[in-house]
Amino acid sequence: MDLTGKVAVVTGSGRGLGLAYAQELARRGAAVVVNDVDAEVAEAAVASITAAGGSAVAEVVPVGSSAAAQALVDRAVAEFGRLDVLVNNAGILRDSTLWKMTDEQFDAVLTTHLRGTFTCTRAAALTLRAQGAGGRIICIGSPTGQVGTFGQTNYAAAKAGIVGMVRTWAMELARAEITVNAVVPVAATAMTETVPFLEPYVSALKNGDPLPPYARKQLGFGSAQDVAGLIAFLASDAAAGITGQAIGIGGDRLALWTHPVETVVEFADGTGWSAEAIADIWPQRFEGSTQTVGQQFEAEE
After folding, report:
1. For the chain, what is the mean pLDDT?
2. Is the Cα dihedral 298, 299, 300, 301 positive or negative?
3. Number of domains present in the structure of the chain
C-alpha cells in the first residue's frame, strides 16, 4: 500500500470524508492537492497533513466547471510534476421532497456531484493518458444512488449517474491502464448528521464513545477514517486489476454492490406483450420478485 511518489487530487477534501481520504493518501506517501471552496478550511487541511510529515497544497475552487477541473489537474502537475490518482469527493446537499424541490436546488447538486465528477475525470484522463503510465480514478457514490432516499431526488440522480459513468469510463480507459471505481461510503459527516436515525451514533462518535456492533456491522456506520482505507487500497498497485466496481464501506462493513441485472425474464410467443398478457402473467412470475426501495435493515436487538 506504499504510495510514495504518487500524486493525488482529492476534491472536497477540506473536511469530513474528503479530509480523511487526503490524510490517508498522504500518510501512505502520496503528495496531495487538497480542494475546498473555503480557503481557510483548505489551508487547515493542508496544515494537518504537513504537520504529520506529509506533502500537500491547497487549490481553492468550486468543483463543477471545466475550468475548475483543469485548475486542479494543472496544480498537481505544477507542484508535484505529475498526476496519478483522482478522488472525486466534492458534494453538497439540497434536500427537499419532489413537490417542493426548486430548479436551483436540483441544479446545484447535479452541478457539483455529477458535472463535477465528469469534468474532473475528463481533465484527469487527458493527463493520465498523455503520461502513459496508467492511473487511478475513484468516484464517490452513495447508498442513495443505489436504492433511493426520501427527500433526495437531486442527490439520488447524481449518485446513480456517477456509478453509471464509472462503468462506462472503466471500459473507455482500460487500454490506458487507468482503473475507475466507485466507493459507496457510510460515515459520520455533516451530511449524515441530518439523518434522524443516525443521530445517536453521530453523537456517540463526537463524544468519543464506541459504537455498538449493530451500527458498525448492520448499518455499516462509523467514522470517516473507517472509509479511508478503501481509498488507499484502490489508489495502490494492489488494485491494478479492479475496475468498474461499486464498493460499499462503513464501520466494520465492506461490500461489493452488484450491477443491475434482470431478475425475472419471460418471453411472448412471437406476438409481443399486450397490456392484458402482462396483467395475466405478472402475479405468477413477477410480483414475488419486485425490488425494495430505500435501505433495508434488520431491527436492532
Report:
1. 95
2. negative
3. 1
